[in-house]
Each structure stands twice: as structure tokens, then as C-alpha cells.
Amino acid sequence: MSVKRDFLSMPAPENYVAGLGRGATGFTTRSDLGPAREGPSEEQMKEMLAKRAAQLGQAAPSAYGAVEKKEEDEEEDRFQDPDNEVGLFSTGLTFDAEDDEADRIYQEIDEKMDKRRRARRLAIPLPFSTLSPPPFALFKCSTCPLCRTDTDHILPYREAREKKERDEYERNNPKIQLQFADLKRALGSVSEDEWAALPEVGDMTGKAKRAREARLADRKSYAVPDSVLAAAQQAGQMETTISSSDGDGTMTNFASIGAANKSALQVRLDAASKIPGQQSTVSGTSTSVDPRGYITALEKTQSAGVEAPVEDINRARVLLESAVKTNIHNGPGYVALCRLEELAGKVSTAKRIISRGCELCPKSIVCWEENIRINQDNIHNAKIIAATAIKQNPKAIKLWEAAIALEQTSAARKKVTRQALDHNPQSVELWKSLINDTEDLESVRLLFAKAVDTVPLSEELWISYARVSDPDQAQQILNAARKAIPTSWAVWVQASRFQEQLGKDEICDRIMDRAVKALAKENAMPKREDWIHQAEICEEEGAVATARAIIKATVGWDLDEDDERKDVWLQDANNSSARGRYETARAILAHAVSHFTLSTTVWHAAADLEKRHGSTESLLHLMERAVNACPKSESLWLLYARELWATNQADEARTVCGRALNQLPGNENIYVRAVAFEVDASAYDKARYFLELAQQTSPTDRIYMKYATLERQLGNLDKAIDIANEALQTWPHAWKIHAIKGQIYESMSKLKEAQEAYSIGTRAAPKSPVLFILLSRLQERQGAIVKARSSLDRGRQQNPKTPELLLEAVRLERRANDSAQAQKLMAVALQECPNSGLLWAEKIMYLETRTQRKPRALEAIKKVENNAQLFVTVARLFWAERKLDKATNWFTKAIVLDADYGDGWVWYYKFLEMHGTEEKKADVINKCIASEPRHGEIWQSVAKDPKNFRKPLDEILKMAVAKAE
User: Fold this and answer.
1) Nearest to 795 by CA among 815, 779, 818, 817
2) Are residues 112 and 143 in the same domain?
3) In a domain, 227, yes or no
4) Do the record's keywords include Nucleus (predicted)?
5) Total of domains in the chain
6) What is the DSSP track for 628-690?
7) Pairing of strands 153-156, 136-139
8) Which of 104, 371, 596, 931 is buried deepest, with most CB atoms within 10 A?
9) Does 432 lie in the same domain as 372?
10) Which of 417, 472, 423 is CA-nearest to residue 447?
11) What one-character DSSP code corresponds to residue 154?
């Protein structure tokens, strides 16, 4: 009895198309077909035709040799009725006699063609190596496409060639399923866990489009409404009163908006004034953050006992509990949850959680450490926990250290430490702990000997052992350390420091030379920068000789002669000096001097270091070496003479000037310096002698100008004019002599002659803006405003885009009370010279309203970047607003940026006279004297006035402060 299978669980018949019996038309897609493959084989075709004939109740066709198959339980009656629609292939498409006849004819034709091919093959004898090309080829039956016999046979050459080409093509272009066949077979070994661990495929659809839309969204900008500015102004404030004049809230508070704008502008000003090389401390939009201050603030917040919000604790508790439940062996998760409960004040819960963590994670060191820490209120329990932890993890050094820390006495600590060393004899930390708990020096030495024998590769133990030993024994220990650790540079450094402590500084150089050779042989030579850092450490710890030896032996390492070694060494010296390591910088410069003896740059750098951070004797000794090495260097001679004069060694300074003139006869600068020395010493006759000698040996316009200036300062105005006239005959284009001549006539109240001198000068030296300015001012004092404008216009034509002439034209209109014309001229001036700090400062201070000064200052700083004159202007703005701290900050920035700008010192000292202390004012005066400023409108007007001849700088500073308005 046959059991009928469930219809839904039965496999679908071949070539089944759903709905075909109801008239539906089936279709096939690429997914149904799959990749391209060969058609059914001959046996499959025979079986399919026979099966279809059996289902239709017809005889099997003779094509392909198909035979009829009959089932034993088949009913013959069901096939007699043509209208009986049963079976899957009952579609009315029946085979008749004509179809059978056609199949038979095709079959006969195929058989006849096969006979002809076989007869042709048998007629060809073998071998056929003489045929070229052979028309036939010998094939094995396993590769033949026509037969399945066990004998060799012959194929026509065409078929052989086609088959060869087809095999070659299939080999070069394998099918997709063949390429990944090995990978498909390998998929059978993939486990279910590995399948589950495969990551999800990300959504890459429209990725580029989404990224482009995000970029466009970031570029969008919106105008900030007044309400946001008003809220920024009121942020952090607490109102305790209610104003009755507020109305219904529809009125805009423009005062608050202005204050908010002012605060935002101030922050932007501070951010724009950042000087390269300095750390900005401005908050707000500044991107410079002080990491130390930030961390300090965090520590103060934690130490102040600030409690976290309850909502944050609950949220964190849920997350951490989920983490430990998901992975019960997550040791750090238990630690984090324990500390969270401790922060929440639930110490007992925290202890219970960490105990649970230790049970589930017995190999987690952090869990045991946290368990010991949180149970330190009960030392007995903490010791039990530590013992259990060590039993589970006997190699954990941190657990042993925690157990040692629980002991109260030195003996107990040593006992635990020895037990720890039994399990971890290679631990340097445990050896150090045991040695630190030992007080007897001899016992300490014995422990060190045992330690270095057990851990021979520890530099720290060897060095510490040498430090506690006698000198002779220490040297032996360091020798043994070098043999044990041939790649250690620290041992060599310690050996040099040991010799320095013994007072044998000369041996330090030999030790470091040997160190370089030994380390280079072992390929363990550190970088040159690392050696410099080690030298700075030695200097900090007082080992100056060792630091010098390190620099001398290693500063040239890995630098070829073709490299720019001079620039590299100068930069290294500057970096060390900036870090406060002056001995290291001095050693680097000394090494540079030994290699570049004829370089004045290196000598000047060494002299500058000695002048700032050395002694007078060392500076003068260095300068003597410098002038002997570079006798033709004018700058070195002048610096040497100046330093001698500054140390009140006048005779030596004069001697140096004489030596310089012997080496550089007729040098103009040396004559000028000698004249300056004699003038400072009030030896005017000697000064005249040097000037007259210079006129004979090296007559220049500068020598004549200095001579005329000296006579003017001494009150000999007629002689000064004669000297100026004599000089103009030889140098008619020397604009400074024209200017001096006109100023002398002005001081003699001969305005007509002064105007003529200036006019001649403008024609002889048209490229000198100063002469046009002096001429216009003289004409303005005479009341000829139109002529003054004309003179400035001529100067602007001869010297286009000159800020000084443009500024004078603006000031001329401003002094004439023509503000509109001054504004127009300033606009033109800023178009011609948009990066002039001189013009921007004038515009901000005198041509802008009070409310617009800060915005203009910000605009100016962005255009001009770093300009001392602009910084002084901004400082004056803050000073006017009584913001003294900010004003001080900006004044400091100005004098740091350009110490030669005298007006910066003038305004800063004037500010300190009103708001500073005596100590601060004295400090500013000392720094001003050291800087010796020479530029600045107010400063030059006072310093170059003949009335202030030979007055000290501090007095000139105070006089300039009185003149500043």
C-alpha cells in the first residue's frame, strides 16, 4: 500500500511554471537561470523525453534512443481519453506519427555522418608527423567529445584546433562558479558562532551624496539675532528686582545688545593679538588652552567634594550593570561599578560588587587591587583579601606591592617583600622596595650585589649600587655594568658624573668619547637630540662638566660636513637657552666656535649669551678671542669696545678702537663709535679731533653730518652751518644734511633761510619724505596752509604710497579743523597703504567715534597682524575704559613685540604713573635702558632735541611721558 505524500511538502516537478494550467504565461529571470552553464547531457535528455512520453500516454520517441518506461501500477485506461487532463504535462501538445518520422530521419542522418567520419579516420595511417599542418590529431577517449570508448582515435585537425582553443579560453576565462569553488567548499567548515560573528553590511547607498549635503550644511551661516546677544549679556546674572518700565517686552534693549557686542569684540581682539612664540591666556574664542590649569581646576573640583547629579549616577549605574551582566568576566566593569557606588555613598554595596567581581574574575589584577583599596578601613580584612589575591596571582607585582603597603612595620614589609622576591626574583620594583626598607648601609650594599646578580640588565640597580659604594668599588661596579649592558648609555653618563664628583673634570671628555665609540659599535647610539636632553638633565642636577662633555662628544653626531651644521647648532643653543639651560647652550656654542672660527654669526651668538646669562669677565674674554679670530670684523670690534665702555673701562675701550682702526683703517663706523665715546666722556676736543681725522682719511656724508650735529649740540650754530654747506658741495643729495641745515636755521629763527634750505633739499633729494614734511610744517607755522598742502602733494607725487606723507596730510587737515577732508584723505591713505599701522593708529584714536574705536582696532589688527603701534593704541583704549588689567597686558605685548619702539615705553610708563607701583615703574625704566629704543615719534622728538643733549635715558623717558598727549 503506497502512502500519499503531502502536496505542499512534495518537490516541484521539473520545468514547473505556476499557473500554467489556468492560462498564465511563465517567465524566467536571470536569478532563476543562475550563471551561464552547459545544457543537459545526453542521458538527461533521454530520461526527460521518456518521462514526458509516459505522462502523455504515448510511445517514447526514437530520438536519442529513448525507451519507454512503464510503472507496474499504471492504469492503461487513463491514456485512452484525449480529453483526460491529468498530469503536469497535459497541455494538448501531443506527438503524432509525423513527429516520430522526423525524429527517425534526424537520427538516421546523424548515424550516417558518424559512419563517414569513422571511415575517414580509419583511412589515415599513423604516424602523420610528415604532414604539415596535420589534418588530424590523436585523442584519448577521456578527452574526446564524440565517443566514450577505451581506444585512441583520430579527430580532424579543425575539430582538434577548435577544442584546443576552447580549452585554452576556458582556462584563461574561468567561470564564476569555478573561481570561487574552493571558497564554497571552505564554507562548509564555518561554524555557527563564526556565522553569527560576521558584521552587518553598512549602508553605502548615497554615501557621497550624504557627505556632500553635510558639507553644505556646515557652510551655512545665519545672522545672530538680537535676542541671542541680549541673552549672552545677561548670562550668569541674577535679577532681584522687577522694572516697571519694561512694558510688555516688545521693546529692544539696545544698551544690552551693545554691551554684548562689546564683550564679543573684546574676545576677538584678544584672539587676534596672539603673538607667535607666546602662549595665549585669552579665553573665549581662543583655541589656546592651558592644559595644566585645566587639570588643576579639575583636581580642585574633585577635592572640593562636588557630588555628581543623581540622574547621572543612575544612568551610569544602568550602563555598568548591563556591562557586567552581559560579560560576567569583565573585571574593569566591576571596578567601575564599585567606584560609582562608592561615589554615590554606598560603600557596602561597592564592597559587595567588587567581591563578586573577584569571585568571577580571579585572574583580574585590577579587581583585586580595587578590593584591597576599598577595604583598607579594616586592615585585617584587607590583608586576607591580599593573601587570597596573591594566591590566585602569585606573579602579580602590583598585588605584592599592595600587600607590602598594608604592613605597618619595616620588618613586616621586608618579610612580605622577601616572599614576593621568591616568586618574582626578576622584579626591579620589589628589589627597590626591599632596599628602601633596609637602613644598614652594609646590608644595602649586600642587597644591591644580590639584586644586580639576579637582574643584571637593570641600569637603575647598577647605578644605585655604584652610588652607595666607595669610589674604588664604584668604578669596578660601573665597569661590570658596562660589560653586562653594553648598549646602556646611562652607565657611561653615570661614570662621567662619578669622575666629576671626584674632581676629575678632564676625564669626563675621555669617558664620553669612549662611550660614543662603544655605543656606535653596538648600534645603540641615541639621537643627537636625546643627548642634548640628557646634558640638560645633568646641568639641572649640578653635573656641569658632564653636560659639557656630553655636548662636546655628541652634538655633531649624525651631521655631515655638507649639512648646515652652523644653523643647526645655533638653533640648538637657542632652544636650550629658552629652556633655561645656559651651560648646555654655552657648550653648544663653544663647540660651534671651535668648528666655525671665522664666523661672526657664531661669535655674536656666544657673546649675546654671555651678555645675558654670563659674567662680565667671561664676556670680555670671549670678545678678545673673537676679535683675534676675526680681526677684519667691524661688528665684533664695535661690540668689544662698547662692552668695555659700558663696564667703565674707558681707556681699554679707546685702546680697542685704536686696534680696530689699525685693522680697518678709515672705517667710518669705528670713527663714529670713538666720537661717541669721547662725547660721553665730555672730551669734545678729542671728539673733534677724531671727526677731523675721519674727514681726512674717510670723508663721507655721515662723518660731516655727525660733525655738524656735534657743533649744533654744543651751540656752535654758525660752524655747524659752515660744515653743512661744505658737505652739500660734495654730497648735494644727502637729505639728512639738508634737514640739519634747515633745523639749525629754525633754531636761529631764520625761517626764510630754513624754508629755502628745505626747498633746495626737496629738489635735490626728492625721494626723501622727511624734507617735504619739515617744509610743510614750517609753512603751516607761517600760516601758509595752502603752500603746506602743495608741498605735501608734491612729496606724495615723488613718493607714492608713503605712510608718513599720507599721515602728515591727514594731520594737516585735522589741525585745520577740517574733519571731513581729513576723513577723505585717510580713506585714500588706507587704500594706498592698507597695512600701515601708523595710519590705522591715527584713524582709531583721532578720526573715529568712541563706540567705533574697538571695531576699527580689530579690523586693523587683522590687516596689519603684529604691530607694536597698534597694540599701544588698543592698550590706550582699554585704559580709557578703566580696564587696567587688559591695558597692562596689551602694553606688555607691545614692548615684547618691538622693544626698539620708544613710544611703547613712553605710554606704558605714563600708564604706570597713574596705576602702577614704584617697583613696576623701576622695572620698566631698567628694561627701557637695557633696550635703548631709538624709534617712535614722541621718543625721537625728545631724544634728538639739542636741549636734551647727553641726558640719560631714564630722564628722556620721563620728559617724553610729559610730552605725550
Assistant:
1) 779
2) no
3) no
4) yes
5) 5
6) HH-TT-HHHHHHHHHHHHHTT-HHHHHHHHHHHHHHSTT-HHHHHHHHHHHHHTT-HHHHHHH
7) antiparallel
8) 371
9) yes
10) 417
11) E
The C-alpha angle 451, 453, 455, rounded to 5 degrees, equals 65
pLDDT of residue 254: 54
Question: Count of H helices and E strands in the chain?
Answer: 50, 2
Q: Please tell me whether residues 424 and 314 are part of one structural domain.
A: yes
Percent of the chain with pLDDT over 90: 30
The answer to whether residue 707 scores a pLDDT higher than 50 is yes
SS3 for 613-641 is HCCHHHHHHHHHHHHHHCCCCHHHHHHHH
Euclidean distance between CA atoms 513 and 611, whole angstroms: 31
Instruction: Say if residue 769 is preceded by a cis peptide, omega within 30 of 0.
Output: no
**How many Å apart are CA 952 and CA 955, to the nearest integer?**
6
Residue at 365 is within a domain:
yes
Number of Cβ atoms within 10 Å of the Cβ of 746? 19
Mapped onto helix, strand or coil, the DSSP state of residue 153 is strand
Higher pLDDT residue, 146 or 873? 873
DSSP letters, 80-142, are T-TT---STT-SS----HHHHHHHHHHHHHHHHHHHHHHHHHHTS-S--TTSSS-SEEEE-TT
- Smallest CA-to-CA distance from 846 within 864, 825, 868, 863 is with 825
**Choice among 393-397, 545-549, 575-579, 815-819 with the minimum mean pLDDT:** 393-397
576 pLDDT exceeds 50? yes
CB 721 within 8 A of CB 690: no
pLDDT at 220: 61
For the chain, the C-alpha Rg in angstroms (whole number) is 50
Bridge partner residues of 137 (DSSP): 155
Q: Quick one: pLDDT at residue 47? A: 78
Q: Which H/E stretch holds residue 156?
A: strand 153-156
Q: Kindly state whether residue 98 falls inside one of the protein's structural domains.
A: yes
pLDDT bucket at 908, cuts 50 / 70 / 90: very high
Q: Which of 170, 196, 216 is the last residue of a domain?
A: 170
**C-alpha–C-alpha distance, residues 665 and 671, integer Å:** 10
Residues 76 and 153 in one domain: no
Calculate the CA dihedral of residues 80, 83, 84, 89 and round it to 10 degrees: 100
> Phi then psi for 156, rounded to 5 degrees?
-60, 150
**Residue 542, C-alpha cell as written in the block:** 649640578
Q: Residue 202 — left, alpha, or beta (φ > 0 → left; ψ -120 to 50 → alpha)?
A: beta
Read off the pLDDT of each residue in 340-361 and give the average, rounded to a whole number: 88
Instruction: Please check the confidence at residue 279 and state whether its pLDDT lies above 60.
Output: no
- Phi and psi angles of residue 943, each rounded to the nearest 5 degrees, phi first: -70, -30
Give the three cell numbers for residue 157. 585537425
d(C-alpha 826, C-alpha 842), whole Å: 9
Helix/strand/coil for 155: strand
Half-sphere exposure of 906 (CA within 13 A, CB side): 28
- Are the beta carbons of 771 and 738 closer than 8 angstroms? yes
Residues 6+ apart with CB under 8 A from 305: none
Cell numbers standing for residue 70: 512503464
Handedness of CA 453, 454, 457, 460 (dihedral sign): negative
Compute the average pLDDT of residues 761-779: 94
**pLDDT for the residue numbered 149:** 47
- Same domain? For 50 and 151 the reply is no
Say if residue 788 is in the same domain as residue 744.
no
Is residue 438 within 8 A of residue 422, CB to CB? The reply is no
648 contacts: CB under 8 Å, gap ≥ 6: none
pLDDT > 70? residue 201: no
Same structural domain, 436 and 326: yes
339: its cell numbers: 567606584
| CATH number, position 797 | 1.25.40.10
The CATH number covering residue 750 comes to 1.25.40
pLDDT-derived band at 154, boundaries 50, 70, 90: low
d(CA 413, CA 271): 56
How far apart are the C-alpha atoms of 693 and 715, rounded to whole Å?
A: 22
The residue segments making up the domain with residue 144 are 136-170
- Last residue of a domain, which of 170, 189, 212? 170
Q: Is residue 629 part of a domain?
A: no
